[in-house]
Design a protein that fits this description.
The complex is a heterodimer of chains A (111) and B (114). With 111 residues, chain A is mainly beta. Chain A contains no helices and eleven strands. In chain A, strands 2, 4, 5, 9, 10 and 11 form a six-stranded mixed beta sheet that branches. A five-stranded antiparallel beta sheet of chain A has the order 1-3-8-7-6, with no helix packed on it. The chains are: A mainly beta (111), B mainly beta (114).
């Protein structure tokens, strides 16, 4: 089955800096790669996703890139703000049945 | 308001006492699933359901049961809870099968088994 590795597990940046979180996946059949943000005490919420027919997708300060050949995808957050502090999860779909999540990255943005 | 609801939100119980966590969605989604979240382990899928009366095991199904008698409801049943099932549980639903689309999560149920 699908296996998703996520790095780093923790990331600390200064406000205004960029943050990058990287994930690798194992199943070449996976074709959907979402990113979820979970604020403290809250439920995970989708922030951006990408499908395998696209190499990059942007939404304001957030972007995701996908390298199908290398089987990795990354989340890029520019001009970070304190409200970006949260746990971020990457995921990949498996064989049309499930979403397999990475273990999460705790991002801390200090002002 | 489109939403996924779970009850109870918090539960403390003892080993072996059967319990049910309810999950309901009002978005007419066919796909529903249960996850548990443990520190350092991320979100792991317990069970999922493609449609009414269709359920299947996720990565960590041991000790859990589910049922899907109606489209909107997907309860999680722990027949004989054990301390290693202490965790934060999330129900989620999606209009897209197989997790290939936005999953809407419920607010979570924090379960402690003593």
């Amino acid at each position: 089955g699908e296996n998703v590795e996520q790095h780093p597990s923790t990331l600390s940046v200064q406000e205004g800096d960029s943050a990058v979180i990287k994930c690798t996946y194992s199943d070449s059949a996976s074709n959907y790669f979402p990113w979820y943000k979970q604020e403290l005490g809250k439920r995970p919420q989708l922030i951006i996703d990408i499908r395998s027919n696209v190499g990059e997708k942007k939404d304001q300060r957030i972007a995701v890139t996908l390298n199908k050949t290398a089987k990795h995808f990354s989340l890029h957050i520019t001009e970070t703000q304190p409200e970006d502090s949260a746990v971020y999860f990457c995921a990949a779909n498996q064989a049309g049945t499930a979403l397999i999540f990475g273990k999460g990255t705790t991002l801390s943005v200090s002002s | 308001e489109a939403q996924v609801t779970q009850n109870p939100r918090y539960l403390i119980t003892v080993t072996g006492k059967k319990l049910t966590v309810t999950c309901s969605q009002n978005m007419n989604h066919e796909y529903m699933s249960w996850y548990r979240q443990d520190p350092g382990l991320g979100l792991r899928q317990i069970y999922y359901s493609m449609n009414v009366e269709v359920t299947d095991k996720g990565d960590v199904p041991e000790g859990y049961k589910v049922s899907r008698k109606e489209k909107r409801n997907f309860p999680l049943i722990l027949e004989s809870p054990s301390p290693n099932q202490t965790s934060l549980y999330f129900c989620a639903s999606s209009m897209t099968q197989g997790g290939a689309g936005t999953q809407y999560f419920g607010p979570g149920t924090r379960l402690t088994v003593l």
